[in-house]
Amino acid sequence: MKILTVVRLPSEDSGLQNSIVRLHNRNIDSKRKDRNRFFRREPVMICNSANGASVLRYVMGTPGGISITKNAVALDYDAIDVLGVRFNDLVELELKRASSAEIYKWFWFHPDLNVRISIRLGIAGGLLGILGFCVGLLPFIHFSL
């Protein structure tokens, strides 16, 4: 989806803890049947092709307090800063569904230290668990040869 305008997200929705992007309700499918529209709380990547910057956010609809057109989104200040755009200016951004690899990459390099460390420890623990399982199988493989 091409984004032409960015408006300010309300202060109660802003911040690294929420990490949401608000879209026009016509772009949201709450029943998860139309793949041409985005689902609520679905992770998406917002990319700026001009400078190569991207940001991960979770899709939400418009509650009615802000005016968002069909080709516009509402973002917080942190996302605007990362993408290098300004509010209410003409922009060329792309909004697409985030793949699993993009999600892990985003959290691996997350700006918040607590999130960054927890994902790294989780992945390291998973890899060590697989390694321990393989080492535990070695005695059984050795006797069967």
Count of discrete structural domains: 2
Which sequence of strands runs across the widest sheet?
A: 1-5-2-4-3-6
Envelope shape: elongated
* Helical proportion, percent range: 25-40%
The radius of gyration over CA amounts to 20 Å
Q: Please summarize the sheet with the most strands.
A: 6 strands, mixed, barrel
Keywords: Membrane, Transmembrane, Transmembrane helix
Transmembrane segments: 121-141
Protein name: Transmembrane protein
Brief synopsis:
Keywords: Membrane, Transmembrane, Transmembrane helix. The chain is an alpha/beta fold and 145 residues long. Helices cover 33% and strands 25% of the residues.
What does this structure look like?
It is a single chain. The chain is α/β, with parallel strands linked by helices. The protein folds into 2 domains: 2-103, Barwin-like endoglucanases (Beta Barrel), CATH 2.40.40; 112-144. It is 33% helix and 25% strand. It has a 6-stranded mixed barrel with strand order 1-5-2-4-3-6. The radius of gyration is 20 Å and the shape is elongated. It starts with a strand and ends with a helix.
Write the layout of secondary structure elements.
Blueprint lengths: L1 E7 L11 E4 L19 E6 L5 E7 L11 E4 L1 H7 L6 E8 L2 H9 L4 H32 L1
Parallel strand pairs: 1-5, 2-4
Antiparallel strand pairs: 1-6, 2-5, 3-4, 3-6
Protein name: Transmembrane protein
Keywords: Membrane, Transmembrane, Transmembrane helix
Organism: Pseudomonas veronii
Considering the chains and any ligands shown, give keywords for the structure.
145 residues, alpha/beta, Barwin-like endoglucanases, 6-stranded mixed beta barrel, 3 helices, 33% helix, 25% strand, elongated
